[in-house]
Amino acid sequence: MVQRVSQASVTVDGQVVGAIDEPGLLVLVGVTHEDTRDKAARLAAKLWGLRILDGEKSCSNLGAPLLVISQFTLYADTGKGRRPSWSGAAPGPVAEPLVKAVIHELEKLGARVQTGEFGADMKVALVNDGPVTILVEL
Asked: pTM value?
């Protein structure tokens, strides 16, 4: 899930662990059982080149920052009952390296990346610009 933002931050235990204070992208990365390192690399390239910033520009055109946060709840299944199932989300030991792979691949492409803290109780603050929110699936 990608949101165009004018600013965004993530706080853990009262401390800001990642923030962008200029136009860029907030990226919520969910990992499911079929995801791979190859998919992580393709996702990073897609995010880096996604033309959703002002003037149909991308982070690669503008050098805009990205705040990348792990988000297993993107794979919630609400089909039965009132309590979501998380069975579609990959477990932490599988998901964490793939989230880190997305971050690493973005950095290899030249991106300025801030992050949250995997598995932590994170408080995310953002100013959605537009608003623009896009689901990116590979």
From this structure: 0.95
Position 32 in a domain: yes
Percent pLDDT > 70 in the chain is 100
Q: Rounded mean pLDDT of 18-23?
A: 98
**Residue 87's domain spans which residues?**
2-131
What CATH number is given to the structural domain containing 100?
3.50.80.10
Cα angle: 35, vertex 117, 138; to 5 degrees: 20
Residues acting as catalytic residues:
71-73
Q: Which pLDDT value is given to residue 12? A: 98
Question: What mean pLDDT, rounded, does the chain reach?
Answer: 97
